[in-house]
UniProtKB/TrEMBL annotation:
It is a multi-pass membrane protein. The keyword Cytoplasm does not apply. The chain crosses the membrane at residues 266-284, 296-316. PANTHER family: CORA FAMILY METAL ION TRANSPORTER (EUROFUNG). This is Magnesium transporter CorA. It comes from Planobispora longispora.
Length: 322
């Protein structure tokens, strides 16, 4: 469902009015208009673009999915592509938003209804006195909500990686195939999230660099706070990727160590088994030897087998090979 709002001199005076009335409202002095469109058609966006004087390239980008997070500047407006993120069944779900920013209008275009636009409205209404700053305040509330959602994605990923780390050093489990798959899924999620977080940092940074061109000086600290959050999200993502890589490397080293232990044990038992084979092979020769054909030969070979095997066992056990 499309949403509309009209602010006049920082006060909300009207909402849920037809989008067709937007062009008339925008022309009024001291007014700020916000309207939200969910999954619009090409005709819808073209019509809005004509009413607000939006550049055709910006309208085209809003119609095409999977744009890179970015900020484009045109003569009469800014165009921002941003992504909200949420964790659904251990996978990151991205929701694309196209944002048109003019002097007195903010237009949000959602690709689907999964993005909670009502939460953004509640954030605006929580500080109604800030509405006097117009479009920069509305844009800040929207971007702040999007970036805050990044931490709700990163925290569960951090918890999963920490659980993997605990399992690794506690020696659990013996069957490592589920852990391999989980590690792969986590790494894929982090790579995908990094492609979102890094450009978003540049988007907010670009708004800050423009400063007074598009922002009221009173709003700059608020945008700096959002920029700080994007930096934290990007740095957190990088640190998690590095930690996951370290866990994977430690796991491979642990597997190599376990394999060496197994090989030492197998080799030690093979040496113990080889000694009786050597002795019985010697006494099985078809030539005369001391004790040949006499009971003493049998008992001497038995004593040699038992004594030699015990000697090798204790020697390997002392070296921690068994």
């Amino acid at each position: 469902m499309d949403r509309t709002r009209l602010y006049r001199n920082g006060v909300l005076v009207k909402e849920s009015f037809p989008i067709d009335d937007v062009s008339e409202c925008v022309g009024e002095p001291g007014t700020v208009v916000w309207f939200d469109i969910c999954a619009p058609t090409e005709q819808d966006l073209t019509k809005i673009g004509e009413e607000l004087g939006l550049h055709e390239l910006a309208v085209e980008d809003a119609l095409h999915d999977r744009q890179r997070p970015k900020l484009d500047s045109y003569d009469s407006h800014l165009f921002i592509t941003a992504y909200a993120a949420e964790l659904v069944e251990q996978k990151i779900d991205l929701i694309e938003l196209s944002i048109f920013v003019t002097k007195n209008a903010l237009v949000t275009v959602r690709e689907n209804a999964d993005f909670d636009i009502d939460a953004v409205v509640r954030r605006w209404d929580a500080s109604p006195e800030m509405a006097r700053y117009g479009v920069p305040y509305l844009l800040h509330g929207l971007l702040d909500h999007i970036v805050d959602g990044y931490f709700e994605v990163l925290q569960p990923l951090d918890d999963q990686i920490e659980a993997l780390e605990d399992e690794l050093f506690n020696g659990l489990p013996d069957d490592l195939r589920p852990r391999h798959r989980q590690t792969f899924e986590l790494r894929k999620n982090l790579v995908r999230f990094r492609r979102l977080a890094m450009p978003m940092r540049e988007v907010v940074g670009s708004l800050l660099r423009r400063g007074g061109e598009v922002l009221d000086p009173a709003m700059i600290p608020y945008y700096q706070d959002v920029h700080d959050h994007t930096l934290r999200a990007a740095e957190w993502t990088d640190s998690l990727r590095e930690l996951l890589g370290n866990i994977r490397e430690a796991h491979e080293n642990q597997q190599g160590f376990k394999l060496n232990q197994i090989m030492k044990k197998v080799t030690s038992w093979a040496a113990i088994i080889a000694l009786p084979t050597l002795i019985t092979g010697f006494y099985g020769q078809n030539v005369p030897y001391p004790g040949s054909g006499e009971p003493i030969g049998f008992w001497s070979s038995t004593v040699l087998i038992v004594a030699g095997s015990l000697m090798l066992y204790h020697m390997f056990k002392k070296r921690d090979w068994l």
